[in-house]
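pinned: reference chain
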Amino acid sequence: MSSRIVRGLFLTMVLLLTGVSSSAQLLNKKALSLDAAKKISAAAEDFARKKQWIVAVAILDEGANLLYFQRMDGVQLGSIEVSMRKAESAIKFKRPSKAFSDNVATRPQVMALPGALAFEGGLPIVHQGEIVGAIGISGMTSEQDGEVARAALEAWAKSLAQ
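pinned: its C-alpha cells
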C-alpha cells in the first residue's frame, strides 16, 4: 500500500471518529423563535384587552435572556421589571413562579433563592416536552397575571396544533 493511500485512510478514519465523538457531545434542542414569542405576546395582549386589563409581557429564551417584551399603554412602570423577573423565575427553576408563592407560608426560605419570585404570572414555555422559554406577566393581581399567562400559552399551543 502506498503511503498516500494509508494517509488518506488515516484521515478518513480520524474524520469519522471525530464526527462521532463530537456529535455525542452536542445536544439537539428546540429554541423559541422571535416569531413565536411575538405570537405568544399578542395572545396575552388580546386576552388582557378582552378583560380590560393592562399588562406587561416578557418572553425569555431557554437561557433566561429577554427575547421579546411588550407593555400595554398605561401599565405601571414597576410591571416592566416584575414581568421579566416572573419569567426568569419560571425558566431558571423550570416551574411556574406561583410554585414559590404556594410554599412561602410553610417554607419561607424559598424567598432567599436567587432569581425566585414568589408571585403568580411566570410560566415555563414547553414545546414537545422541552422547556424552550418562559413568559412573565405583570400589571394586575397575581392571579389575573397568571390567567393571562396561561391563556397566552394555551392560544399558542392551539395555533401549533392547526
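why pinned: The chain has a mean pLDDT of 90. The chain has one domain: 34-161.
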